[in-house]
Amino acid sequence: MKTIIKRNWTISLMSMLMVFMAFTLKAQESTLPQSVIDKMEKVVDKKEGYILDIFKDIHANPELAFNEVRTAGIVAKELEKLGFEVQTGIGGTGVVGVLRNGEGPTFMYRGDMDAVIVEENTGLPYASTKRVKNEEGEEIPVAHLCGHDANTTWVISLGHTMAQMKEHWSGTLVLVGQPAEETVSGAQAMMDDGLYTKYNVPQPDYFLAQHTSPFPTGTVISTDGRYTTGTTHMDIVFHGVGGHGSSPHHAIDPVVMAGMAIVQLQTVVSRIADPEEVAVLTIGSVQAGTVHNVIPTEAHLKLKLHFSNDEVMQKMIKSIHDIANGIALSNGLSGDMMPTITQSGFGPAIHNDKEFMETIRKATDRVDFTTNRIDNLTLPASEDAFALIHGLEDVKGAYMFIGTTDPVVLAKARAEGKEFAFMPHDPGYQVDLNGITFGSKLAALIALEIMQK
């Protein structure tokens, strides 16, 4: 039984009728033949074992942001043998495969490849035991506990399915293995490296990304309009004059400046951002000094911003500069002693195209492998997928979290009073193997719907 949670609309009866007629006509014009859907499902099912082996291999061999050399190699190798034009090393470790199949729309599908610094405790036979050394030379655990192994596997699976079904679609398929989503910097790195200029990757008419979620396998979250917030990172380094803890009058204390900033930065959201917009400022790290009796020369704050649009982001960034510089000036600093403020990583707020999402909804209504649909969920989370199309004109974009948790596992968790069995980045986060097949079919269904002959 398919459950659909629909958005409430407040429009006139006549407008409702016109909207209904428009969507009905569109659906009639773009409905994929059932025979093609059936064939697609058979193609995916036949390849299921092969694709699951790839997923398990990627899961067992995770790599951190901009170090996804092995993972990128798997993506490149699989797409090359399917006849894709493959380019590697874009933005560091990014991979793009292009399959041209006559006239038609350009459809881009993106999967992110990086893992997280968390030790896995799922107990799975293919669980990660990998450890790597960080910049300080310390050994740290690495694991796919956000589902990027699945997201990458769907890129490969879609390549296999579409390559075998070329007689049923026309246009250009662009598959992207993106690095460094966890640091919200990989998509922008690919853009800065010349994704559409130096590498001449075709600009998409349609853009789609899927991401695993702790909802039950078979769930599609198909919100149109603003879906997530945008995000960026800010670093503030306060410079001071060091000294002995007994003689602060001979020093200019950067720790005090950092403390003043921690308090004053709270006004960026409460007094500067429009209350009708989304604005979040989190100070995730405070670093200064090493011992009790020494006033250090620097204090470092690491900030995480979330925002509903680019205008809000720019207001927040200006306010952060104004506050930090004002604190430094009030402590007698000027010139080259002013705070060093840097921005890194960027993911624009995701605004899903309404028409594209309606097409996706109508397609999912026709298949049995989608069992639940949620149409009105917005999230405070952020992603950098849409940085790949940020600033491009006339691109219909869609980003969807889809359920990849074993329904039995979820039911057990809910019986214990939990909303979810686990959340992303949880040491126990795992992707239902049936969820791999579900995501593979969903991606292929949408691609064929858009690119059908």
Can you tag this structure with a few keywords?
six-stranded mixed beta sheet, 19 strands, Aminopeptidase, single chain, metal ion binding, Alpha-Beta Plaits, 2 domains, alpha/beta, hydrolase activity, 453 residues, signal, metal-binding, four-stranded antiparallel beta sheet, Peptidase_M20
**Basic shape:** elongated
What is the terminal-to-terminal distance? 31 Å
| Rg over alpha carbons | 24 Å
**Strand line-up of the largest beta sheet:** 2-3-7-4-8-19
What this model shows, in words?
It comes from Draconibacterium aestuarii. This protein has 453 residues and is α/β, with parallel strands linked by helices. The protein has two domains: 34-228 and 350-451, Zn peptidases (Aminopeptidase); 230-346, Alpha-Beta Plaits. The protein is 35% helix and 25% strand. It has helices at residues 13-30, 34-46, 48-60, 69-81, 148-164, 186-192, 254-264, 267-272, 310-330, 354-364, 407-415, 433-451; strands at 3-5, 85-90, 94-101, 106-112, 131-133, 139-141, 171-178, 206-216, 219-221, 225-226, 230-239, 243-244, 279-288, 294-295, 298-307, 340-347, 351-352, 372-374, 396-405. Strands 2-3-7-4-8-19 form a six-stranded mixed β-sheet, with helices on both faces. Strands 13-15-11-16 form a four-stranded antiparallel β-sheet. The protein is elongated. The relative contact order is 0.19.
